[in-house]
Write a structure and sequence with these properties.
By secondary structure, this protein is α+β, with helices and mostly antiparallel strands. It has helices at residues 11-24, 32-35, 41-57, 75-78, 132-136, 160-165, 186-195, 219-232; strands spanning 62-68, 84-89, 93-95, 100-103, 112-121, 139-149, 170-175, 179-180, 197-202, 205-211, 244-249, 254-255, 261-267, 274-278. Helix content is 27%, strand content 29%. Strands 1, 2, 3, 5, 6, 7, 8, 11 and 12 form a 9-stranded mixed β-sheet that branches. The chain has a 5-stranded mixed β-sheet with strand order 4-14-13-9-10, with no helix packed on it.
Length: 279
């Protein structure tokens, strides 16, 4: 068993507080890191695990992991050694039919949208330090997706430990059409994942152009980093068969509201575009 985190914050109580805010769309006035300077990532992962336990107890199941801070340039400033992660659930992951999907925002707080590459595992990843080729040998399919995030803390003011404890601000993941990975595709796909481009548009207007390089130089390398980080985190479970990994945003995050139509167009990767309408 991992050593208990050193913090004055009561883990189960905070997990229930975060769950209540998630269900209601309420805010949490004071981030956890501001309540106790000793609230670190180990404590945050304990809260996230308790949150997952409460959701599973209520009848939900976990479907995989989303990552945060998939950009090494900010790790030093934030005193991070690696990226961070949180669980996704059967009621937060939605699969598009075709290239267009609709999503009803459950409440109105301050949600944002991020285009990401989504992977589904066909084999567990039990070791760290893998290269892109080794990762892709464990992958069933890839797809473009939109992750919707929403911060329970006022004005999006938080530290990495708050982000983890609040289940990575995960609200929803909309997954586009999957592309099955065949062995003969892997050599070309390795290059494509590091070079492909995306165009993010809102209501027909270009918002930003992004790249696979924005996710740790390649989304496949982001999965490798996640696999290694899980093995180093006490109590974490390695990536398993059938799990999804949402591998970090390819652009900046942008505020969204009901009635908007967002589209991500992909160039240089054999995936179909995805359009998402908010209700």
């Amino acid at each position: 068993m991992p050593d208990p985190p050193i913090t004055n914050i009561e883990i189960p109580a905070v997990a229930r507080e975060l769950l209540a805010a998630y269900v209601s769309g309420g805010t949490i006035a004071v981030p956890l890191s501001a309540r106790d300077e000793n609230f670190d990532l180990n404590a945050a992962y304990s809260v996230e695990a308790e949150f997952a336990r409460l959701r599973i107890e209520s009848g939900r199941t976990t479907t995989g992991l989303k990552v945060g801070y998939a950009n090494k340039a900010i790790w030093r400033a934030l005193k991070l050694r690696t990226l961070v992660w949180a669980h996704m659930y059967d009621d937060t992951v939605h699969h598009a039919t075709g290239t267009r999907a609709e999503l009803t925002l459950p409440y109105y707080r301050s949600p944002k949208i991020e285009p990401e590459i989504v992977f589904k595992l066909k084999e567990p990843i039990m070791s760290g330090g893998l290269d892109a080729a080794a990762v892709l040998q464990h992958i069933d399919w890839i797809a473009i997706g939109f992750e919707i995030i929403d911060c329970p803390f006022p004005h999006w003011q938080f530290k990495p430990a708050d982000f983890v404890a609040a289940f990575g601000f995960h609200l929803a993941l909309v997954v586009g059409q999957p592309r099955q990975i065949e062995a003969e595709m892997i050599p070309k796909l390795i290059d494509e994942l590091g070079r492909f481009r995306v165009r993010l548009s809102k209501d027909g207007q270009l918002i930003e152009e992004g790249s696979g390089k924005n996710s740790l130089r390649s989304p496949a390398l982001c999965v490798a980093e996640l696999a290694g980080a899980l093995l180093l985190q006490p109590g974490a479970v390695p990536l398993s068969i059938g799990e999804l990994v949402s591998s970090g945003t390819l652009t900046s995050s942008y505020p969204i509201t009901r009635g908007e139509v967002w589209e991500v167009e992909i160039g240089g990767l054999p995936l179909q575009n995805l359009t998402l309408c908010f209700k």
